[in-house]
TrEMBL record:
Interacts with PEX5, probably required to target it into peroxisomes. Keywords: Fatty acid biosynthesis, Fatty acid metabolism, Lipid biosynthesis, Lipid metabolism, NADP, Oxidoreductase, Peroxisome, Phosphoprotein. This is Peroxisomal trans-2-enoyl-CoA reductase. GO terms for biological process: fatty acid biosynthetic process. It comes from the Bacteria. Belongs to the short-chain dehydrogenases/reductases (SDR) family. Signal peptide: none annotated. The lineage of its organism: Bacteria, Pseudomonadati, Pseudomonadota, Alphaproteobacteria, Sphingomonadales. It holds the Pfam family adh_short_C2. Residues 12-29 have a biased composition (Basic and acidic residues). It comes from Croceicoccus ponticola. Participates in chain elongation of fatty acids. Catalyzes the reduction of trans-2-enoyl-CoAs of varying chain lengths from 6:1 to 16:1, having maximum activity with 10:1 CoA. Has no 2,4-dienoyl-CoA reductase activity.
Length: 306
């Protein structure tokens, strides 16, 4: 007997995104006002490369790192978004950000990017793999192209970045530091199975490389954000957004600055003995509940089919 589908989630596609919706997360005015506990020369003399630096957590990290004295490089696919970060940092800190349009899925482009950062700054200290994304959908309905797009971006793209950065560190005999932004996947992620698979891959890749690459003084760690309100939220339906924060016992959303401050810590000398770790920033969500970003199927509701 065929089960009758009772659950028809509204899936937002990029063309459905309404950019006139209320702002999501910290805007530039908010970012300018964020305080930091760190000393203002904490990252002086360090070079940091942030993928996906044109928005959300990547943009917040670029600004914070520049404020702490780092030389900053960013990449992403959308030149317009990248330029908003370049301008923000210039206005706030006065320093120039190196911006290189790059699709991290393209291994040749990634190799060129790492080369440009080395040529421009004379080296790289910390790589932040923040670029990524997915769309909420029941796994059974994923198209092949959709599955491949998410795996290629979040797993393969992150790997190309890690490998190219590490090759240069090994060649130059310089220490290296990698921070991978993943997600809170320990209980699985219904309606985000593609990203869950990719992020779990990155976490265990990172744990493995933390050992394999320790001989070259390269550290590898991950940050697993829970619900962090950013521009990326515009991809989700309002009904889902109204529920996201209820999936953690604090009943709050994190913000891009929370994550930026953790990244800055991992980029600092204070983190020199942290390696192969996953730092979860989810307000306790892992112990509390799961999110259904495209709507919970009736089966799971209290009076749903048993
Ligand atoms: C890690 C959180 C998981 C969420 C679940 C828990 C919810 C907790 C709350 C936290 C919310 C978290 C939010 C974020 O992570 S926001 C920050 C990240 N930003 C994004 O995710 C940006 C939006 N996503 C994308 O840009 C795309 O999804 C993608 C990552 C796939 C980009 O790939 P590409 O550039 O190649 O995109 P295309 O448009 O060409 O699509 C390729 C194929 O992918 C399929 N697809 C794409 N979008 C959808 C959709 N909305 N619904 C169904 N299928 C989709 C499709 O097959 C595309 O091919 P076609 O267009 O030819 O059909
Ligand atoms: N916000 C949240 O609650 C959570 C977010 N995350 C993850 O954290 C990271 C940052 O997310 P957030 O700041 O919220 O969202 P954003 O959508 O603002 O940031 C994602 C960035 O990734 C870049 N990007 C995506 N695909 C590629 C690609 N193929 N090549 C280069 N750059 C790419 C985008 O830039 P462009 O469009 O220019 O290519 C964009 O700037 C993402 O990996 C996200 O999935 C994880 C858990 C929860």
């Amino acid at each position: 007997m065929n089960a009758t589908p009772t659950h028809k989630p509204k899936i937002f596609r990029p063309e459905d995104v309404d950019y006139e919706r209320p702002k999501r997360g910290l805007d530039e005015d908010d970012l300018r006002k964020q305080p930091t506990i760190y000393r203002d020369d904490m990252l002086a003399g360090k070079t940091i490369l942030i993928t996906g630096g044109g928005s959300g957590m990547g943009k917040a990290t670029a600004l914070l790192a520049a404020r702490l004295g780092a030389q900053v490089a960013i990449c992403g696919r959308d030149e317009e978004k990248l330029q908003t970060t370049v301008k923000l940092v210039k206005e706030e800190v006065g320093s120039d950000v190196l911006s290189v349009g790059t699709n991290i899925r393209d291994a040749d482009a990634v190799e060129a990017l790492i080369g440009k950062v080395h040529d421009h700054f004379g080296g790289l200290d910390t790589l932040v793999n923040n670029a990524g994304g997915q769309f909420p959908q029941d796994a059974i309905d994923f198209s092949r192209k959709g599955w491949l797009a998410v795996i290629d971006t979040n797993l393969n793209g992150t790997w190309w970045m890690m490998q190219e950065a590490a090759k240069r560190w090994r060649e130059d005999g310089k220490p290296g530091n990698i921070v991978n932004i993943v997600a809170n996947v320990e209980r699985g992620m219904p309606q985000a199975a593609h990203t869950c698979a990719a992020r779990a891959g990155v976490i265990y890749l990172s744990k493995t490389l933390a050992t394999e690459w320790a001989q070259w003084n390269i550290r590898v760690n991950c940050i697993g954000p829970g619900v962090i309100e950013t521009e990326g939220f515009r991809m989700y339906p309002e009904e889902a957004l109204a529920r996201f924060h209820k999936a953690n016992p604090m009943k709050q959303r994190g913000n891009a600055w929370d994550v930026a401050e953790m990244i800055a810590y991992l980029a600092s000398p204070a983190a020199r003995f942290i390696n192969g770790d996953l730092i979860v920033m989810d307000g306790g969500q892992a112990q509390w509940g799961v999110v259904w970003p495209a709507g919970m199927p009736d089966y799971f509701s209290e009076d749903g089919a048993a």
